Amino acid sequence: MSFTLKTEQVVTELGKIRIVPVLVLNDLTSGLKMCEILAECGLPAAEITFRTQAAESIIRAAAKEFPGLYLGAGTILNTCDLKRAFDAGAKFAVAPGFNPKTVRTAVDSDFAFAPGVCTPSEVEQAMDLGCRFLKFFPAEAAGGTKMLKSIIAPYKHLGVRFMPTGGVTTANVQEYLAIKEVVAVGGTWLGKADDIAAGNWDKIRETVKQAVALKEGK
Ligand SMILES: O=C(O)C(=O)C[C@H](O)[C@H](O)COP(=O)(O)O
């Protein structure tokens, strides 16, 4: 059993980027500004969550304006949003939970989709559908790296890969990245909704630069 080519490519790319900002964006202008900061600071990825009306149009515009950014869609809760994300130009999609219908559609259409899991049973259900690229969510609340390592152990030989999110911050990011099966981590700490709304771009820039240093082991 191996990843479909497209998912494998996405896993490889995210494995180079290592930290993916999870963004809740309310309007196109601030969305594009956030993308500009990520591109300029050398953190070329974002998961734009479908928690706002603006998400889809921001992905569409940012994919054109910042072709170097690896853009994904987050909070994809059904097959309709999955299709919207793909059509808008998202290279991958993720969800906080495990919805078999969405997973099946993504696998059938060869679109890289990482459903959220935090139990061995969910890992097995995902793998049964042909999906081995998974979100570990809510990472910290579910037991952090200790829990993740325990979950990985029985499935290591099957090539399962994880993207932990939920409570990941500068304080624990390196601990997660040290786990071989962790492709990348994600988090909202890299662009907090309040800071984006207030236009605190210098503060966001500093946080992003700090994350770049951390992923480089500094
Ligand atoms: O919405 C999704 O698709 C998700 O996978 C969940 C997000 O990754 C977390 O909500 C991020 O959690 P925090 O960084 O603790 O704020």
From TrEMBL:
Alphabetical UniProt keywords: Carbohydrate metabolism, Lyase, Schiff base
Keyword tRNA processing tagged: no
Pathway: Carbohydrate acid metabolism; 2-dehydro-3-deoxy-D-gluconate degradation; D-glyceraldehyde 3-phosphate and pyruvate from 2-dehydro-3-deoxy-D-gluconate: step 2/2
Pfam families linked to this entry: Aldolase
GO molecular function terms noted in the UniProt entry: 2-dehydro-3-deoxy-phosphogluconate aldolase activity
Catalytic activity, as annotated: 2-dehydro-3-deoxy-6-phospho-D-gluconate = D-glyceraldehyde 3-phosphate + pyruvate
EC number(s) from the headed UniProt entry: 4.1.2.14
Family: Belongs to the KHG/KDPG aldolase family.
The protein's assembly and partners: Homotrimer.
Protein name: 2-dehydro-3-deoxy-phosphogluconate aldolase
